[in-house]
Amino acid sequence: MPKLRHIALATQDPVKTAAFYKQAFGFKEVGRAGSPDNPKAIAWGFYLSDGTLNLAILKFQNVDQLGRGLDYVGIHHFGVLVDDLDAYMRKLEALGASCFMKQDANTANAFYETKFRGPDGVVFDVSDRPWVGAAPEHAAAAEVKETEPAG
Length: 151
Fold this sequence. Notes:
Number of strands: 8
Structural class: alpha+beta
Distance between the termini: 38 Å
Number of domains: 1
């Protein structure tokens, strides 16, 4: 069975939001995305983990993937880890989900995900590679190694 392994929150203040979830629940910072100084980055922020799930805390800068504006705050999308990406892509499209962003799967060691919209417009990712800090499909919670703390 595919596993829920990723939730992305859109925020206007990734530093404050990440610090809150780290303090409130003991989540570990396991990575960073983009940079506030790089206007070409789709988003910037932090990846947190409880050892099973990757929680992305992101400020979207130049691409409105939801159609709600770049100032939108809230749950942005979720991600599902699957064992056969091509098979699930076919299945999702047959069910009427529209694929709007497919990453280059030919990059050997790079992480990638493919984005879809469900029947109600909710955005979700599918990937056959776990997000940073997320447990593999058939494993217990991963050992979480914290990166440098957020500013």
